[in-house]
Design goal:
This protein has five helices and eleven strands. The protein has helices spanning 76-80, 114-126, 143-151, 162-172, 184-196; strands at residues 4-15, 18-24, 36-43, 46-53, 62-68, 87-94, 105-110, 131-136, 155-159, 177-182, 205-208. Strand 1 and strand 2 form a beta hairpin. Helix 4 crosses helix 5.
């Protein structure tokens, strides 16, 4: 999809310095959890563009992106000030790491990787597939949705240090297709944890945020 103006339906705080933006799905937009979009905006005369991974399980009427707010950043504080009825310029979707609802999943998430983690987990459970999420973050976001997933039968572990994360990965590493979402250092940690658990890290689907 080329650059398209989409309407903001809702902006909600979902954790410390973290918002979820619900956007109206434009005609012709088709995406699965794990894919991402490019958001463009002109802020104080400067054109900015950033990628954000979908955090909604579907895009039927709306889709969601989760945005970590850097108070000293350029684009994210501006996004946090958007209100329902505002519009954003969006391109995409992009990416090859996707989940189409066709099997059991294990999602390893670090920091902003929790967005696609909850989307994939919800998509899996809605199709009666097993879902396990191991999320490393000292100040977690999307706790309400993670709790709902847990109550719906998903295995959800929120770890606040690398040792507990690695231990949690060992418990679930072989129960489904593994997805990894996070920054480079986290992705490397995840692949090491998978190897330690006896799972081939080359079989994991990895989306590094740089």
């Amino acid at each position: 999809m080329n650059a398209t103006q989409v309407t903001v339906r809702d902006v909600a705080e979902v954790g410390p310095d973290t918002i979820a933006m619900t956007l109206a799905t434009p005609d012709g937009f088709d995406a699965d959890p794990g894919e991402f979009v490019l958001v463009r905006a002109t802020v104080d005369g400067e054109e900015l563009a950033r990628h954000y991974t979908l955090s909604s399980p579907t895009v039927d009427d709306t889709f969601e992106i989760t945005v970590g707010i850097d108070p000293d950043g350029d684009l994210t504080p501006w996004l946090a000030e958007r209100e329902p009825g505002d519009t954003l310029s969006v391109e995409g979707p992009f990416g090859t790491v996707t989940y189409e609802g066709d099997g059991d999943v294990v999602v390893l998430a670090g920091g902003p990787g929790v967005g696609p983690a909850v989307g994939i987990g919800e998509r899996a459970r809605s199709a009666d597939h097993d879902a396990a999420i191991v999320y490393l973050d000292g100040t977690p976001a999307h706790e309400t949705r993670l709790s709902t997933l847990s109550n719906a039968g998903a295995s959800v572990t929120v770890a606040n240090d690398e040792d507990s994360f690695t231990a949690a990965v060992a418990d679930v590493a072989d129960v489904g297709q593994v997805y990894v979402f996070g920054f480079k250092e986290f992705c490397e940690l995840s692949l090491d944890a998978l190897e330690a658990a006896g799972v081939d890290p080359d079989d994991a689907l990895v989306e590094s945020f740089g």
